[in-house]
């Protein structure tokens, strides 16, 4: 893979990030083979990024509300469709069409990475190569959409720490993307076969991205849902037309779909008091955490923690739970949390996508299912 240096930003942006790529690769490898129990800093950072993107979009666009819930069931959304819109309706593309400018946080260099290489690296970082080809293609289109949206976002409002780049290889803040040497280390003896599989998938879908109202979408994805995906409104506070709950029942058969996390009283007390300064906890541990409202997908929206009310997302972060879809019981001096799914639950479920592919669905059908109402279009900047 070619990586052409186009600039240097050794001061400022790199401070405190030395070794971030290596640590990101190790974290990625662990996620591919065993789904870690604790919520990763990467997901928390990506949640903040997506929340900021949604907030920015809401500031300039009136986003219609998502379908309302009646008796705990969601009104069926409009049937999704696929279309190729005229080039004139596509967002303006960056001048350097065949490359993305990626800041290397280890060296401070801004590299020109060919789009094809970037998408192969993103696929390797974000989804196991053992997944079905159609699921990999769906992931690649989502990754491409993310990158195009990020390029346009940086063109409109540059992020100072990126030093003129479009993206960064800091996996705590941006989409994962492995270099060829990292992929070789990760795959080992399976490198040739896996690279052939990824390259073939990228070559088939590289021209495509997803749009809504003529703009690249927020292509959110997660490992596995509770069985029904979550809405952006419930997860991040702002409704997005195409990030709404859809069925993903196959997730309930995914590895480690349901997990228990146990916290002895002293550990739980420290976690809660550290995360929520000033909270007053009573003597009876069984009253420390009482889940409140939940969504039809099972996500805990809020919970009473001692004398405070906190969001389910904040409580999940404080305790390092695999998802905000959880219940809590108390036994033998411990708080026992049972979680379902892994991740924020918004957008495409990776395990759900793989199950759909195994059942014969194409990458287009997978994307149409998880991002209802969006268009699959040719990226005219390619």
Description:
This protein folds into 2 domains: 285 residues, no CATH class; 83 residues, no CATH class. A hairpin with a 2-residue loop joins strand 14 and strand 15. Helix 3 packs across helix 4, helix 3 packs across helix 6 and helix 4 packs antiparallel against helix 10. Helix content is 35%, strand content 18%. 45% of the residues are buried. It has a 4-stranded mixed β-sheet. Strands 8-7-17 form a 3-stranded antiparallel β-sheet. A 3-stranded antiparallel β-sheet has the order 10-15-14. The radius of gyration is 21 Å and the shape is globular. It has 382 residues and is of the alpha+beta class. The protein is built from 11 helices and 17 strands.
Record keyword descriptors for this entry:
382 residues; alpha+beta; 2 domains; four-stranded mixed beta sheet; three-stranded antiparallel beta sheet; disordered N terminus
